[in-house]
Amino acid sequence: MKPSSLFSATFIIAGSVIFGCAHAEAPSRLDKIKESQTISLGYPSASLPFAYLDNQQKPTGYSVEICQHIVQHIKASLNLPTFNIRYVPVTSATRIPLLRNGTIDLECGNTTNTAERQKLVSSAPATFVAKTVLTARKDAGVDVNNPASFSGKSITSMAGGLALSVVQQISAEKKLNISALPSDNAASSFLLVKTGRAAAMSNDDGLTYALVATSGDPQDYVIGTKALLAAPYGIVEPKDDPRFKHEVDAAVLDLIKSKQIYALYDKWFTSPIPPSGINLKFPMSDVFASRSGASFRFW
Question: Which residue numbers delimit the Solute-binding protein family 3/N-terminal domain (predicted)?
């Protein structure tokens, strides 16, 4: 049974308020988009099932489909007969700079809405809440639910991501001398664990279950059950563009209110997905319904 309160108003967290028509004449990316009849979407290329490349090397995934719904909403709102989507690959380190400098108009991946990031960008209403957990090989001699077992060892995660910074914070607070190893993407982090170059990976549970399920040897890994933090994901928008934000947020709220978001979730998390048809069997968790806000530390 899906939590009835999953996408309640509490998920429209700070920075996600829809603005009214008082700002209708302010300069906006909508003007550029209307003139060029093109919108640029940033996406991570290896963040299955949120955003990744399919067998035809085309962007696909849960967050990509949400962005495609936003695109259709904007196309109708601007009354454009034709509308082009330009896909731009991004990493955790480049996604915000590329949004801020205008290279992309939205980032469609697995970015957590935090108070710190709200100083630079805005976020649409949350469409996923992740639990950041540790994952290790079963033969690594560590306890993924006990930070003390990683004293003097290494933990990897994506550069510029919240999952890496929380490891650094825990290590400093508990004086564990953990070496934090940054990587380009989730797949690179998992490879460091697979080859023994890192004792564990710090990553969000949706990404983690996908990586383990597609590893070829899922029985070789153990995924933590104790969350480092809870992290709400939202499509990332430019800051201080109320007209554009109004359209983007309205499209996301339409998905939520119409319950289409449930079908999208089932498609990407509880059904076989491309390219190999693996089913993540990852139902909506309690943390989806019970956590809101920028982030919530557990450890």
Answer: 38-272
Residue span of the structural domain in which 212 resides: 132-230
In terms of domains, do 95 and 159 share one?
no
Give 107's strand partners. Answer: 42, 236
What would the pLDDT profile of 237-258 be if each residue is shown by its tens digit? 999 999 999 999 999 999 989 9
The CATH number of whichever domain residue 225 belongs to comes to 3.40.190.10
| 119, 253: one domain | yes
SS3 content of the chain, % helix, strand, coil (to 5): 35, 25, 40
Q: 118 with 18, same domain?
A: yes
Tens of pLDDT, residues 182-228: 999 999 999 999 999 999 999 999 999 999 999 999 999 999 999 99
Q: Are residues 13 and 109 in the same domain?
A: yes
- In this prediction the pTM is 0.79
Residue 139 CB partners (closer than 8 Å, separation 6+): 220
Map residue 101 onto helix, strand or coil. Answer: coil
Q: What is the mean pLDDT of residues 100-112?
A: 96
Residues 113 and 235 in one domain: yes
Nearest to residue 108, comparing CAs of 68, 155, 79? 68
Sequential DSSP letters for 62-74:
HHHHHHHHHHHHH
Tally the domains of the chain.
Answer: 2
Dist. CA 277–CA 256, nearest whole Å: 26
Is the predicted pLDDT of residue 297 greater than 90, yes or no?
Answer: no
Q: Examine the domain organization and report whether 43 and 55 are in the same domain.
A: yes
Question: Is the confidence at residue 86, as pLDDT, over 80?
Answer: yes
